[in-house]
Amino acid sequence: MDFKRGERVNLNFDTGAVEKLDEEGEDAPQMPAYPSFVGDILERGPSTAHPPVAPSLKPNGNGFPAHKKRVPRVSAFKQQRAAKEQQAAAAALKSQDAQKARSALGFDQDQERRTIDEENQQTLAGMSDAEIEQERQELMSSLSPALLQKLLMRSNIDQGSNEQDFDSVPSGAAVQPATDDAKAEPETKPTSTKKVSFATPEPEHEAPKTNTTSTTTPEDAADSIHFPTPPQPPDLDPNDPSFLKSLHEKYFPTLPYDPSTLSWMSPIDPSDTKSAYHPSQTGFNASDLRFDFTGALLAPSVARAIPSDRGLHHHADAPEAAGYTIPELSVTARSQVAAQRCMAYQTLGRILYRLGQGEFGVERGKQNTDGPVQVARNPEVEEKESDEEEDEDVGSAMAGGLWTCIEEGRVIETLTEEANKTKGHLTARTFAQEALWNWRRGGGRKRQAI
Fold first, then answer.
1. Cβ distance 363 to 446 under 8 Å?
2. Which percentage of the chain shows pLDDT scores above 70?
3. Which helix (H) or strand (E) is 291 found in, with range?
4. pLDDT beyond 50 at 329
5. Alpha-carbon span 57 to 68, nearest angstrom
6. Spatial distance between the Cα atoms of 211 and 215, rounded to a whole number of angstroms
7. Disulfide-capable partner of 432 in 113, 198, 319, 419 (CB 3.0 to 4.6 Å)?
8. DSSP state of 33
9. DSSP string across 359-400
């Protein structure tokens, strides 16, 4: 049986026969029904194609194409500022319009007042003195005496303060229709007011009140008001023996006075010998010895003679003596202020160099013997000790005491910690490294084996 390529067949495993499949048979598998997403394809007729056209350039006289005009871009900030300026200008324009409207309204009111005044002047000009007096009497009789009294208190009729002249109105308008009777009106006006009488007499104590109120000004009233001021203490004199007490009374009168808190400001008493570094002392501890910034030892007499502007008096112990002790420098070396640490590192490094070189004496080792007692000298034999041996003993004790102060203050450990820092104040680290270098260059403490 011949089969076409790609034709479906049915293989029967029982008989081993190959049979053709009926295309319209019931055994043919049905295709799954999927919704049709694609509609019918419609072909449209081609439109008329337009051939490409070369761009037309505007002719230029110089032979080069014209440059493109770039419109400058306005930032958002400038746009907001321009909008605010426009709003401010619109608000100012509205305010000007409102002012113009108010001024126009005021002009109309003034014009109306001038018109009424002109009419009144013309009416008075056409009336005789008898008619004017009759109208005045009728007006006075129609008003109550109390109201007339109040009106007279508010204005001064004799001086004519209630009258107002309009300069802008030409004088000819009122003068032309005037007659001889009208010209005599100002002369008869004061005399007519004196003839008016009232049932209730005007109180005399009210008249001076109007004059006082008109002459009194707020400035005069303000000058008349004063408050009592406490007496001011006199100016302070630094050379006054009671300067500290006067200082407390002037600036801190409400605080309790304690002289001990201001003792550091008082001058030094030269007769006071209680200081630990006074020249009259016969002996000093190693912790009391003072050094300058170069690491040199300062004698007590020299320390008291150094002026205070050298920067060597910034300490509390023995304030009259200049210089720093090793315990003070060891504390300053741990300060949080970098400038103070730098000063302490540099001074300690120089002291360590001088101490290692033996400038302050050479430390001797202790000698131990097998006997129960170490005999230093024979008391039965009189021996004369030389000055050199005494100086050596003093130098040895001084050097040992200074090295002990350095160890107790942990000076070497502080310098090493600062020199090994990887971050922080660079100048302080440099001075610490320099101090350690001076310590090693001087030789350090020379210990002898026991």
1. yes
2. 69
3. strand 290-291
4. yes
5. 13
6. 6
7. 419
8. -
9. TT--PPPPP--SSSS---S-TTS--PPPHHHHHHHHHHHHHH
Tell the residue number behind the tokens 């194409």, with chain if given: 65
- Bridge partners, 324 (sequence order): 291
Contact 147, 141 (CB under 8 A): no
Q: What is the mean pLDDT of residues 175-190?
A: 46
* Whole-number Cα distances in Å, 39 to 33, 35, 78, 374, 419: 16, 11, 55, 126, 86
Helices 129-142 and 185-194 cross at an angle (nearest 10°) of: 40
Distance CA 24, CA 22 (A): 5
Q: For residues 64 and 425, give the distance between their C-alpha atoms in angstroms, rounded to a whole number.
A: 65
**Residues 228-239, mean pLDDT to the nearest whole number:** 77
CA 226/CA 28 separation, integer angstroms: 124
Instruction: Say what the pLDDT of residue 398 is.
Output: 86
Neighbours of 332 (CB within 10 A): 20
How far is residue 256's CA from residue 354's CA, in Å, rounded to a whole number? 49
What DSSP assignment string belongs to 296-341? PEEPHHHHHHS-GGGS----SSSTTS-SB-HHHHHHHTT-SSHHHH
Kindly state the helix (H) or strand (E) to which residue 19 belongs, with its residue range. Answer: strand 18-20
Position 45: which residue type?
G
What mean pLDDT do residues 62-87 have?
A: 85
Token pair for residue 182?
């009208």
Pair of tokens at residue 354: 């001088």
Q: Does residue 9 contact residue 18 with C-beta atoms inside 8 Å?
A: yes
pLDDT at 106: 53
> How far apart, in whole angstroms, are the C-alpha atoms of residue 58 and residue 77?
37
pTM to 2 decimal places? 0.43
Return d(Cα 88, Cα 92) in angstroms, integer: 6
- 318: amino acid identity, one letter: A
Structure token pair of residue 207: 């008249």
Q: Left if phi > 0, otherwise alpha if psi is -120 to 50, otherwise beta: which for 6? A: left
Whether residue 42 is predicted with pLDDT greater than 70 in this model: the reply is: yes
291: which strand partners? 297, 324
Helical axes 426-442 vs 338-356, angle rounded to 10°: 10
Looking up tokens 């081609």 gives: 46
- The angle formed by the CA atoms of residues 344, 350 and 351, to the nearest 5 degrees, is 85
Q: What is the mean predicted confidence (pLDDT) over 78-97?
A: 91
**Helix (H, G, I), strand (E, B), or coil: what is residue 126?**
coil
Burial class (CB in 10 A: 0-12, 13-18, 19+), 430: middle
Q: How far is CA 138 from the centre of its chain?
A: 76
Is the pLDDT at 66 greater than 70, yes or no? yes
> Is pLDDT larger for residue 358 or for residue 448?
358
Element (H, E) at 416: helix 411-419
